Amino acid sequence: xxxxxxxxxxxxxxxxxxxxxxxxxxxxxxxxxxxxxxxxxxxxxxxxxxxxxxxxxxxxxxxxxxxxxxxxxxxxxxxxxxxxxxxxxxxxxxxxxxxxxxxxxxxxxxxxxxxxxxxxxxxxxxxxxxxxxxxxxxxxxxxxxxxxxxxxxxxxxxxxxxxxxxxxxxxxxxxxxxxxxxxxxxxxxxxxxxxxxxxxxxxxxxxxxxxxxxxxxxxxxxxxxxxxxxxxxxxxxxxxxxxxxxxxxxxxxxxxxxxxxxxxxxxxxxxxxxxxxxxxxxxxxxxxxxxxxxxxxxxxxxxxxxxxxxxxxxxxxxxxxxxxxxxxxxxxxxxxxxxxxxxxxxxxxxxxxxxxxxxxxxxxxxxxxxxxxxxxxxxxxxxxxxxxxxxxxxxxxxxxxxxxxxxxxxxxxxxxxxxxxxxxxxxxxxxxxxxxxxxxxxxxxxxxxxxxxxxxxxxxxxxxxxxxxxxxxxxxxxxxxxxxxxxxxxxxxxxxxxxxxxxxxxxxxxx
Length: 511
What we know:
Layout: E1 8-19, E2 22-33, E3 37-41, H1 48-56, E4 63-68, E5 71-73, H2 79-85, E6 87-90, H3 102-106, E7 113-114, E8 117-118, H4 120-133, H5 149-162, E9 167-171, H6 179-194, E10 198-202, H7 206-212, E11 215-220, E12 223-229, H8 235-243, E13 261-270, E14 281-289, E15 293-297, H9 304-311, E16 319-324, E17 327-329, H10 335-341, E18 343-346, H11 350-354, H12 361-366, E19 374-375, E20 379-380, H13 382-396, H14 412-425, E21 430-434, H15 442-457, E22 461-465, H16 469-475, E23 478-483, E24 486-492, H17 498-507
Parallel strand pairs: 3-10, 3-11, 6-9, 9-10, 15-22, 15-23, 18-21, 21-22
Antiparallel strand pairs: 1-2, 1-4, 4-5, 7-8, 11-12, 13-14, 13-16, 16-17, 19-20, 23-24
């Protein structure tokens, strides 16, 4: 008798999908066994997102067939029908209703009823049982908006359990989580596996693949490349399969003469803004020189993003002074004022704060640079705009069928590259990059790191905020460490260690 654990829970055979001007998937196959964590790997534009949408019922394939427990799934099934069949998808951008409670989000549209009305007692009891099963100490009555990003991720998983999920698809589940929250998520993923629930785990962080995944499938340019057991392959092997070449994210020491100070702040303080869970800043003093890469490390909520938004004029500070090239200037009161002063920000949340999702790639990239692209200061030159877009498309390797495609149809990594091109085109004196490689594959990450170094080599002062310590160690000349709204330390990039920086982040003192 065949071993049941070897029989695929989900099988995709010969899946193909085309969009105008691009073939997203070409004869792709995928096999997910019962009770396994299966990593789906590939660069941005490899076809992962399209395959996930087909599995979830959000899109139909042009060719191929899906099977669950060996039985075919209809192409016309909706996402809700797939959820009822046991396939639940948790996307990178959460689908939660912030003003509703945890319990209401878990059972929205499926609340237990009594005499035609919602049975609140039963709703809270059922929600508590599932939260407890996942090892979560969370009050089902609290509003989702009061939760951290990590806790909201757990609510998404708890909601999946209410569908009696057999397969949970997680798209970049740790992209916005702190180290402690990542550990909690991995614990729950392992617990799901022990319960016989399968997980498709999409990530660009290969250390997570070895930590929680059993098997993997690699896609490249919309085609199946390889699959196998994670334990039989090193991270370098997986990278080569993903990008077709050898890529390493190593420290590159930059030998440069000291340059003049580009930006200095003293005594920057702020009270929490109206944005959810904003952090108070307390007496921040910092400087960055022209041609220098200053990394900012810290746990979630440490205040790094709030500080960046103040420098860009997107948040107001209650106190503080700013110098640009030794000239004392007023703190910018708006992003447009900051841009005029030579300060540009790549925001942390590209979809919320960066992209005009319904507008074209062309419009998103050129919008702040229209003065450079006009004729007679009245009309945008079609030729100049085309040259402008093609220049940055080639420089950053942006994958797109046409620059007139809405940016909302691009993968997350390619959206990030468009926003990065927009920032670089402004020719800033100070470039602030908040999570510049979030959602970008390992091959593109190496390219972005090199682009950051090249930008600094032209004399631009670069401030990089990243939740990945290895990234900061790879590219930073200095690293400033934030903790609870304060700058607690600055360390030299060459001598900094992962353990030392993490200790400063967690307890405020070096290990």
